[in-house]
Amino acid sequence: MRVMERTFREQLFFLLLCASVLKGDCRYIENNEISKDELYSFFNSELKRETTEELMYRRPLRCLDMVAVEGQFTFTAERPQLSCAAFFMAEPNEVITVEYDNVDIDCRGGDFITVFDGWVMKGEKFPSSQDHPLPLYERYVDYCDSGALRRSVRSSQNVAMIFFRIHNAGSTFTLTVRKHINPFPCNVISQSPEGSYTMVIPQQHRKCSFSIIYPVEIDVSEFSLGHFNNFPQRSMPGCAESGDFVQLLGGSGIDTSKLLPITDLCISLLDPTHMKIGCDNTVVRMVSSGKFVSRVSFSYRLLDSQELQTIKLNNVEDFCFNN
């Protein structure tokens, strides 16, 4: 199978193996022998079900792991593990709670478990500091610092992660991961390279993004910003001055502040906007002043290898292949 035709799960597997974590201090990734079949099984729809406490899904947590289901996850160190991370993911309309159940680590000896509100990959953060409602320092919650005062941490979007460092064999901890409905999602990483989505900001001063870690074709079918509803749609270079606009961004990282703008829209749509974006990460980002109800609907599908070869000749997409 060609590289550009990998499923989203395969790319996550690759990104996790290449990720530099632990607040930029990680210099290597432990070889945890995570097989693709094991990683993909976490996404199995049969596991995505509501469970009682008695029937809660349980399994060991690995030093490098991906978790897309609710359940209890226990890590027990067989040897010193100094650079570990687990990535949690939910549906676009859900947020994640990470609860500490049983923790037996040596905080004074340098062990730590830190929950991060979002994802960190290759030194980049999602959501970016510009788009997240909390300052960066509040997005890190360390068990050794908070202890019994904060046994549960809730994410602001559908992704979260933990960093942990364990020095002594036999040290262990257990986490319970739960998902909760989020009526107005803001900042989403898509689980799939194909689908459709409607983003709504209900009169709130926010910056929200929908990230598709794949080269895709995007169709923006509906776009409504209250103050421009009676005007024809157009793309404008000065949309940021209006205070309410939608951006299409592209690039290779997950930090939206480091992606390159492809086009800005700040006038409500009468006709669909159609675009093929050959970047590793394609983002629909909506900025709202909070004065109006803002709404954008779009669909997306994975580009095949022939389409990618064709758009390499398009000047708008060149930066996606040169970075």
From TrEMBL:
Residues in Corticotropin-releasing factor binding protein N-terminal domain copies: 56-180
Disulfide bonds, paired cysteine numbers: C63-C84, C107-C144, C186-C208, C239-C266, C279-C320
Biological process per Gene Ontology, one example term: hormone-mediated signaling pathway
Signal sequence bounds: 1-26
SUPFAM superfamilies: Spermadhesin, CUB domain
Domain of life: Eukaryota
Location of this chain's protein in the cell: Secreted
Domain Corticotropin-releasing factor binding protein C-terminal: 188-309
UniProt GO MF annotations: corticotropin-releasing hormone binding
InterPro entries for the chain: CRF-bd (IPR008435), CRF-BP_C (IPR056178), CRF-BP_N (IPR056177), Sperma_CUB_dom_sf (IPR035914)
Transmembrane segments: none
Keyword entries, A-Z: Disulfide bond, Glycoprotein, Secreted, Signal
Cellular component terms per the entry's GO annotation: extracellular space
Family statement drawn from the similarity comment of this UniProt entry: Belongs to the CRF-binding protein family.
Role played: Binds CRF and inactivates it. May prevent inappropriate pituitary-adrenal stimulation in pregnancy.
Protein name listed in UniProt: Corticotropin-releasing factor-binding protein
Organism: Sparus aurata (Gilthead sea bream)
